[in-house]
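pasting for the record
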Amino acid sequence: MDLSNKLTVGQVVKSRAGRDNGKIFLVLKVINDQYVHIVDGDLRKLNNPKKKKVRHLTIYNTVITEFQEKLGDAVEVNDAYVRRVLEPFNKSI
């Protein structure tokens, strides 16, 4: 676990505050050093990401580089893909 503010697209994070406390997400977009957009493919889909403060997230060292690469090609990235990528992390909770 890394608690630095160095976030990238495709990084795995866990919510520490709010209604989604304890859920695992992927970073969809880094807005600035305080806010990011996160998705989980279930409640927070790609077309409606959650704007979340970085200080309310636990940041993991795991970055899904395949997600970064496929994000440019919108046909290959959908909510089912996000759920499938996050499935191993949700099972480990």
